[in-house]
């Protein structure tokens, strides 16, 4: 089941497609369960014997075992509706990280819900736009939100469920990812435990009702997933890569071949040079603006290739930077040493980081950035991670910046109840990547993305590690590199470089005349008072030459412009919507 939608009224629940019935429940689901053995073991302990081990039957069994606490116990990536006709109740939920999103809307006819936002838009219309969503999208496009672009249509938040009974509806807060006790007593065993959890996450994700591809970019995370899937002897396994031959900074072919020499599997290549960003305007309605609109040509060809090969699931390495403390991980544990008055250890650790700092920055720099500032942010309820580019681009109208408080929005969101400063920074970074995954999971029609590096037990294991296992000024991903010795090709395991895809992006904009015309001819973002028309046109011209004040913010506004034009076309009937799954409900 790839998508579903429905309506909960006080007297009945209707849905499309028809739900499957297990254990006295009607079940609608999308996605997969990653800890099937644990669910079956708990069922056996309680004297419940499922008739089969299908996903739907396991979800029903889990509901009978744990009720509304199901998301805390069932790992994986899924959205789920359990319609318990016996108790006359309905549970609407999803995985703890919200990787498979679920949307809902309170209406006079009842509570509408759907796995895809466009299905709710079809049922309710676009209505009034949420200006706060638009401002958040411009100020900090990477920041996740429970808002949608439409007032009254909402995304179910991470660790949240909705329980509907005859007494009414209530939001249920599920257990958040937390600290877990390691199974190993000796830190020398951490690599073994890491590898065990990684293997479980990848193996579960690779079990699909059809061929499975691994996105293989040549980076450490995608190579990790590919090698672990091959070691697990995943059935019908293949590799998929976007290869750029004309752009040296984006050419990863040599790294990819090292992995495929170690684990030969069928390799499927998308020619990135012929599917550049900005080279194609989306040909179907996108329910909300996002980077996928800019990169539509590659997304379209990607899906066509997957459909031609009958691919059921694609495994990605997304999330590795956040979970494994990759490039960009910063030593916020210094603030915790100060907070707990361990000053001798603090200054020794600061000196260790200074000694490996190529820029030889002062002690004051380390004290202010990683001790004083994060402690002050936590005290004020602000996010620990600094904004990547807080200052709005010069082509955004100053009036709009003031009216919508873009600078404040650009700071991102704090994580309440995170405890330590280091844990707060981890959860903030994790929240961003989970939001990005949820957005991407709205796109494919013929297959589903899976993200085994976001396997909850693995994430919680990394969260509970001692800080000296996470941070090393001499290099990143310390534990990941130790654990994968002998698994990854050695040059890949030791790789310290990171691919930069700005060059294809700028070149695609230079060539994409149709896209540029839509961005600059009477732009709707100018009509709405968001950008200065002349300065925006100049920004587009500069970007075509490879210069942008903030590429993420430029891409966010470019996607917003195309999306606003889609809304106009939709209202005038020029753009096809998805088939209305809610018709007749």
How would you characterize this protein structure?
A 6-stranded antiparallel β-sheet has the order 3-4-5-6-10-11. A 5-stranded antiparallel β-sheet has the order 2-1-8-7-9, covered by helices on one side. A 5-stranded parallel β-sheet has the order 14-13-12-15-16, sandwiched between helices. 42% of the residues lie in helices and 14% in strands. With 585 residues, it is an alpha+beta fold.
Name the descriptors.
single chain, 585 residues, alpha+beta, six-stranded antiparallel β-sheet, five-stranded antiparallel β-sheet
The beta-strand count equals 16
> Strand percentage, roughly?
5-15%
Shape: globular
Uncertain regions spanning at least 5 consecutive residues: none
Helix content: 40-55%
Helix count from the secondary structure assignment: 26
Largest sheet features: 6 strands, antiparallel
**Strands ordered across the widest β-sheet:** 3-4-5-6-10-11
Backbone structural class: alpha+beta
Mean pLDDT: 90
Our measurement of the CA-to-CA distance between the termini, rounded to an integer number of angstroms, reads 19 Å
List the helices and strands and how they pair.
Blueprint: E1 5-8, E2 13-16, E3 20-22, E4 25-33, H1 36-45, H2 55-66, H3 70-73, E5 76-84, E6 89-94, E7 103-107, E8 110-114, H4 117-124, H5 131-139, E9 153-155, E10 160-165, E11 168-173, H6 190-205, E12 212-215, H7 220-231, E13 237-243, H8 253-262, E14 267-271, H9 291-294, H10 296-308, E15 313-315, H11 320-323, H12 333-339, H13 343-355, H14 363-380, H15 398-403, H16 406-409, H17 421-440, E16 448-450, H18 456-464, H19 467-470, H20 478-483, H21 490-493, H22 502-511, H23 513-520, H24 524-527, H25 533-544, H26 551-571
Parallel strand pairs: 12-13, 12-15, 13-14, 15-16
Antiparallel strand pairs: 1-2, 1-8, 3-4, 4-5, 5-6, 6-10, 7-8, 7-9, 10-11
Helix pairs in contact: 1-2, 5-26, 6-18, 12-13, 12-14
């Amino acid at each position: 089941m790839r998508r579903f939608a429905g309506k909960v009224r006080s007297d009945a629940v209707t849905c499309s497609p028809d739900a499957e019935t297990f254990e006295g429940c009607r079940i609608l689901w999308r996605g997969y369960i990653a800890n099937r053995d644990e669910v079956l073991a708990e069922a056996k302990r309680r004297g419940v014997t499922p008739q089969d081990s299908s996903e739907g039957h396991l979800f029903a069994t889990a509901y009978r075992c744990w009720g509304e606490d199901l998301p805390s116990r069932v790992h994986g990536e899924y959205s789920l509706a359990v319609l318990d006709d016996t108790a006359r109740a309905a549970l609407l939920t999803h995985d703890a990280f919200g990787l498979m999103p679920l949307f809902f809307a309170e209406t006079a006819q009842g509570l509408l819900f759907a796995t895809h936002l466009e299905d709710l838009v079809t049922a309710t219309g676009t209505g009034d736009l949420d200006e706060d969503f638009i401002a958040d999208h411009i100020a900090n496009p990477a920041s996740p939100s429970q808002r949608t672009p439409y007032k009254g249509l909402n995304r179910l938040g991470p660790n949240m469920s909705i329980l509907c009974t005859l007494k009414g509806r209530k939001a249920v807060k599920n257990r958040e990812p937390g600290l877990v006790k390691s199974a190993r007593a000796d830190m020398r065993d951490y690599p073994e435990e890491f590898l065990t959890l990684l293997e479980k996450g990848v193996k579960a994700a690779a079990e699909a009702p059809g061929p499975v591809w691994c996105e293989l970019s040549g980076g450490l995370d995608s190579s990790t997933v590919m090698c672990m899937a091959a070691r697990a002897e995943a059935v019908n396994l293949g590799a998929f890569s976007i290869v750029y031959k004309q752009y040296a900074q984006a050419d990863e072919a040599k790294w990819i071949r090292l992995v495929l020499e170690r684990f030969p599997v069928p390799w499927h290549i998308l020619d990135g040079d012929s599917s550049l960003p900005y080279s194609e305007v989306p040909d179907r309605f996108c329910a909300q603006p996002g980077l996928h609109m800019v990169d539509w040509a590659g997304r379209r060809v990607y899906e066509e290739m997957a459909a031609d090969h009958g691919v059921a699931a694609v495994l990605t390495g997304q999330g590795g930077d956040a979970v494994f403390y990759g490039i960009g991980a910063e030593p916020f544990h210094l603030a915790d040493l100060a907070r707990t008055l361990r000053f001798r250890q603090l200054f020794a650790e600061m000196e260790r980081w200074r000694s490996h700092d190529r820029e030889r920055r002062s002690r004051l720099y380390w004290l202010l950035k990683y001790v004083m500032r994060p402690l002050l942010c936590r005290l004020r309820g602000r996010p620990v991670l600094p904004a990547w580019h807080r200052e709005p681009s010069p082509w955004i109208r100053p009036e709009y910046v003031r009216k919508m408080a873009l600078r404040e929005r650009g700071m991102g969101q704090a994580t309440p109840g995170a405890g330590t400063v280091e844990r707060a920074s981890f959860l903030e970074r994790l929240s961003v990547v989970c939001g990005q995954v949820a957005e991407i999971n709205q796109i494919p029609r013929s297959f589903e993305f899976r993200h085994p590096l976001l396997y909850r037990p693995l994430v919680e294991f990394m969260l509970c590690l001692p800080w000296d296992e996470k941070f090393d000024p001499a290099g990143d991903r310390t534990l990941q590199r130790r654990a994968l010795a002998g698994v990854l090709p050695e040059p890949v395991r030791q790789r310290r470089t990171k691919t930069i895809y700005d060059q294809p992006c700028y070149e695609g904009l230079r060539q994409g005349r149709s896209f540029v015309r839509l961005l600059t001819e009477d732009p709707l973002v100018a009509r709405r008072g968001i950008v200065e028309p002349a300065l925006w046109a100049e920004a587009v011209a500069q970007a075509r030459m490879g210069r942008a004040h903030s590429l993420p913010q430029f891409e966010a506004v470019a996607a917003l412009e195309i999306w606003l034009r889609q809304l106009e076309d939709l209202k005038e009937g020029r753009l096809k919507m998805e088939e209305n799954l809610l018709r007749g409900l």
